[in-house]
Write a structure and sequence with these properties.
About 20% of the residues lie in helices and about 20% in strands. The protein is of the alpha+beta class.
Length: about 220
């Protein structure tokens, strides 16, 4: 089966990682010039897709070492690329026409939205009156609060079931570089508070049973 997902704005992290291994920083940033949202759980339609296999390390490392690096990351990278009808925002939700579709029951049809402010050179995230909330760095965004500026590597959560990280192109390059230099020996696993697989649990005190399917 191909590793190509059904949504055109999603790429497997293994493909991005292979670009990192084979390109210079300048080449990588030219080829991958969009911010990404990295997650393990984009919902239905992607859960059975296969990764792109790393077969030819080019940086002196081994395939086994690179596999361990990938195991410490999310599986999929959503490129923040406009495809919907709202020119000023990139929508997040369960609806099929969302720019970033998360086909998960606890995510609302129109859950949240990203905006880019060119003069600030910054990206922002806002909640769209979702049923189960939008969180940045563990803090919920009140619908009345407006937008929250996103920093490289910050953890995002849409409802209780979808945990992501936001990266600019520079940020994704740095993350790969840091993970390569910080890969633990085979058979061990160093705790990384910024890794998406360490952040998928509900925050302390949040009652999972109380969270229902979104509208």
């Amino acid at each position: 089966m191909s590793d190509q997902p059904l949504q055109e704005n999603i790429v497997s992290m293994s493909k991005l990682f292979e670009s990192f291994l084979s390109l210079s920083k300048e080449q990588f940033l030219e080829k991958h010039d969009l911010p990404v949202v990295v997650t393990d759980n984009p919902g239905e339609n992607l859960e059975n897709a296969h990764f792109h296999t790393i077969t030819s390390p080019t940086d002196g490392g081994t395939t086994a070492e690179h596999t361990r690096v990938l195991q410490r990351m999310g599986k999929w990278a959503f490129m923040l690329k406009k495809k919907g009808r709202f020119a000023s925002m990139l929508t997040v939700g369960r609806a099929a026409n969302s720019d970033l579709r998360l086909n998960v029951p606890s995510v609302s049809k129109f859950h949240a939205y990203f905006t880019h402010v060119a003069r600030d050179k910054a990206w922002y995230l806002s909640d769209a009156n979702s049923s189960n909330g939008t969180f940045v760095g563990g803090k919920e965004i009140p619908p009345s609060h407006g937008k929250v500026k996103l920093e490289d590597g910050v953890t995002l959560r849409f409802g209780p079931d979808v945990t992501c990280q936001f990266f600019t192109p520079e940020g994704i390059w740095k993350m790969f570089s840091d993970r390569i230099s910080d890969t633990p020996p085979e058979g061990t696993r160093r705790f990384d508070p910024n890794a998406t697989d360490e952040l998928s649990a509900l925050p302390d005190g949040e009652d999972e049973a109380s969270v229902g399917e979104a509208s």
